[in-house]
Amino acid sequence: MADAAFDPLASARPGASGRVAGARAMWREANAIQKAAFVVAVLLLAAAALAPLIAPHDPVAQTLIARLRPPVGFERFKEGHLLGTDELGRDVLSRVLWGLRLTLALAFAGAIIGLLLGGVLGLLSGMAGGVTDDLVMGAVDAQIAIPFTLVALLILAVFGSSLQVMVIVLGLYGWEQYARIVRGEVRKLMRMPFVEAAVAAGASRPRIAFRHLLPNIVSPLVVQFTLSLSNIVLQESTLSFLGMGVQPPTATLGSMVGIGRDYMPTAPWIVIFPALAILLLTFAVQILGDWLRDRADVRLRSR
Amino acid sequence: MIAYAVRVIAKALVTFLAIVTLVFFFTRITGNPIDYVIGQGITQEDRALLMTYFGLDQPLWLQYLRFLRAFVDGEFGLSFVERRPVTEIVADRLWPSLQLLGSGLALTLLLSIPLGIVAAIERKSWIGNAVMSFAFIGYAIPNFVLATFLILIFAYWLNWLPVVGNGTALHFIMPTITLSGVMIAALTRFTRNAMLDVLGQDYMRTARAKGLSERQGLFKHGLRNASITILSVIGLQVAGLAASGNVVVEAIFAWPGIGDLLVRSAIQRDYPVLQFGVIAVSVAVLTVNALVDIAYAYADPRIRLARA
Description:
The complex is a heterodimer. By secondary structure, chain A is an all-alpha fold. Chain A has 14 helices and no strands. In chain A, helix 4 packs parallel to helix 13. Chain A is elongated and about 75 Å long. By secondary structure, chain B is mostly helical. Chain B is 80% helix and 0% strand. Chain B has 13 helices and no strands. Chain B starts with a helix and ends with a helix. Chains A and B meet through helix 5, helix 6, helix 11, helix 12 and helix 13 of A and helix 1, helix 6, helix 7, helix 10 and helix 11 of B.
C-alpha cells in the first residue's frame, strides 16, 4: 500500500496475502447480529440464485380452481402450496423466490451503474478541476435537492415502466454520493507525493487514474456500495409497490405487496410473505453495510 | 454575515436553475409529450390542434424560455387531464400535505430528541442499546412495509383505525407514524452523535469542574450546543426524507395531498402537473436547506468564518 493513511481498511488487509486472515479477523470480531445478518444475506442470495431450481411452481402459472388458499397449517390449505396461493391461484412461495431474484438482480445492476456513473464523474471532476468540476458539482447539488422518489416518478412517466427503464432509474440512484466521495478522495490524493511523482515522471492521465488513484479509493467505495444496495432495494420495492415498477405478471417483492394489498382483509399471506422477505433483505444488507462502515471509519471504533 | 447569506442564496438560485433546466429538458428527451398521452387513435389535425392548445408546436428553445417566464408571471400551463391551471391543482393539495408533514414532524421531534439524548447519556447501558436498536429498525424498515403491517393489524384485524382519507383525527394516526418512522430513526441517531460530540468537549468538563450538577451541565451547556447541529440536520436531511416519504405515505393512504397527486399524474403521464409538482417540492426543499444554512451560520460564528 502506497499510503496507509488513505486506506481506511489497511488494518483489515495488511497485504494481498493477508486478505484471508483479515476476513477471518473480521468474522471473529463480529457480534452475533452481524454474523446472523451475514448468514441471512448468503441464504437470500442463494435462494435468489437457485430460484429456478428450488421454486416448486412456475411463478406465473395460474390455477384458478385453487385461488386464495392459505399457507400450511390453516384450513383449506392446498397440498403443494406451502405459503398458500394468490388471487389467481399462483404459488406464493415460488413468486417470493422469483421476486427476490428479480429484486436482487435489479438492485445489483442499479448499484453497479450508479457506482460507474458517479465514480467516473467524480474522477473527472477531481482530476480536471475548473469548469468540469463546477458543472459536475452543480449537478450533484441539483440531484441532492430533488428527492430521488420524484426523479424516479419523472423518468418512469416519460419512458413508461419496463425492466430496462427500471434499471436506468435505479442506476441513477446514489451517483451523487459516489461522485462526491471519489472527487474528495481524488483531490486529496492528487497532492500526495506519490501521485506528484507519477505526474513528474510523465505518466498519462488514465494511468494515474487507474494505477495510482483508484486502488486507493476502493475501500470507501465498497462501503458506499453496500449501503446504497439496501437503499436501492428500498427504492425498487417502493416504486413497484406504487405500481410504477416492473409490470405484471412479472413479480418483484414490492409489486407483490402492492397488488396483494387489495386482498389483505381475506388473504393476508399474499402480502405478509413478500413483506417479510423485503424486511429480511433490507435488515441484513443494512447491518452488513453499517458493519463495513464502522470498520472502515477508524474514528468510530473508539466509541 | 450578510455576505455569507448572499452566497448561500446565490448558490441556491444556481441549483434552482439547474433543477428547472434538467426537469424541462428531461420531459422533452423522447420527443413530444403529447404523443404519450393521446396514443394512436387520433387524426393529424386533432393532434396539431392539441399541440397548439398546450403550446407544444413552438421550437424547443422558445418553449424553454416560456417555461422560465412562468416563474415570473405564474403561467405554468394546463393539466393534460384536468384542463385546469397546474398551479391551482397543486395549491388545492397543499394544505393536506402540510397538515400531514406538520404532524409527522411534531411526532419526530417529540420522540427522537429525548431518545437521542438518552442514548448518548446511557450509551454503555442496555437502555442506550435498546434505543439504538429501535432507531436501526426504524431506519431499515421500508415505509410501505410499515404501513402495510399497520393497516393489517389496526384496520383489518383490530378494526380500530380507518385506512383512507383525512376526515378525522383518527385518520392521522397511521400516516403520521408511517411518515415519521424513518425520520425518527435518522434524527435519533444524529441527536445521539451530536450529544456525544458535545459531551466530549472541554467546556463540559469545565461545567462539571465549576460545580454544576450533571443535569444542569447537560441542559445548559450540552443541549444548547448540540441543538445547533441537530437543527441543521432537521433542515438538511429530514426535509428530503419528509418529501420522499410524503409521496409514498399519501399514495398508500389516499391522502389528498401533493405526494398522492404526483403519483397519480406520473401514472396518467400528466406532465405539466408532474413537472410543476417536482419543481415545487424541490424548491421547498432547497428553500428549507438555504434557510437552515443561514440560520446555522448565524447561530455559530465558527461556521461563517470557516467557510468565508
